[in-house]
Amino acid sequence: MRILFMGTPDIAAASLAAVLEAGHEVCGVFTREDKPVGRKQILTAPPVKQLALEHDLPVYQPKTLRTEEVQQQIRDLAPELIVVVAYGRILPPEVLCVPPKGCINLHVSLLPKYRGAAPVQWSVINGDKETGVSIMYLDEGLDTGDILNVAPVTIGPEETSGELFERITAQGAKTLVETIASIAEGTAVRTPQDHSKATLAPPLTKEMARFAFDQPAQKLHDLVRGMNPWPVAYFEQEGKKIKLRKSHVAAGSGAPGTVLSIKPLTIACAEGALELDEVVPEGSKPMAGSAWAAGRRLKAGDRL
Predict the structure, then answer these.
(1) Helices marked H in the chain — which ranges?
(2) Beta-strand pair 25-30/103-107
């Protein structure tokens, strides 16, 4: 099938690789602009662009899809199907109507649950045991189109959103290729979403990562997992941010914030207790929670 691919980050590159391996004709690749990366701010191409150039595919990096010039470029490419994976731009109606077989999108949740920008992270933060991927037709709404295919993915009790995202990336590419095949064969079935069951997954912010120990330990542990690798959950101690990258729920009780033990560093919560396995003190490198506690000369009975 003649496909126009639109995507930007690693998950999109994995899907593009799968589409190419399946033997489809990719007539063009749309991706976001190159951006400065790292401390030296080196101008770097998105992962999708890098892969596209390796395969000698034409690459387009428009700042918007809403100009007549760009829309004519898309019409001239004459795609049968447009495939979108984390492109980062909304397709206007003038683009949605171009391909005769429509525009499809890979979304990393079981729609209509977790519509929006951070579905993987919120599924972990909320303590879900399962999430998945959905392949849907694009319409003018936010992740509101008819569903073509879904694949569930379990969430491990200690899994971070970063670790989960790696597994979902692989599942998403597999499910996407299966769905494209069904469209090509004319066997695809579209199912409208039940909009009454929709929930949202807004972008994460650094402020959302802030916590105190006046919550249940399990809820805090889920927050820590969901906020890893970014923006990383944190609490404040003496006016300094202490990021918490890894934790475990532990037995124990006491007034919230009470140090129950130093090795391992265990803090009482509203319900249960939390082991602080790996912390990043403000201005310092990652270290074991017990090492941080020793450096602060904390002892059992102290309060955070």
Answers:
(1) 10-21, 47-54, 68-77, 93-96, 119-125, 161-185, 217-226, 289-295
(2) unpaired
Q: Please, which residues have CB within 8 angstroms of residue 187's CB and are 6 or more apart in sequence?
A: none
From the centroid of its chain, how far is CA 303? 35
**Per the structure block, which two tokens stand in for 76?**
């001239």
| Residues whose CB is less than 8 angstroms from the CB of residue 255 and which lie 6 or more positions away in sequence, other chains included | 268, 303
Which residues partner with 243 through β-bridges? 234, 280
Percent of the chain scoring above 70 in pLDDT: 100
Q: Provide the pLDDT for residue 1.
A: 97
Assess whether pLDDT exceeds 90 at residue 156: yes
Indicate the pLDDT class of residue 39, thresholds 50, 70 and 90: confident
- Hey, where are the domains in the chain? 2-201, 207-295
What is the topology classification, in CATH, of domain 207-295?
A: Methionyl-tRNA Fmet Formyltransferase; Chain A, domain 2 (3.10.25)
pLDDT at position 262, please?
A: 97
**What's the whole-model pTM score?**
0.95
Which CATH architecture group holds 2-201? 3-Layer(aba) Sandwich (3.40)
Number of Cβ atoms within 10 Å of the Cβ of 68: 8
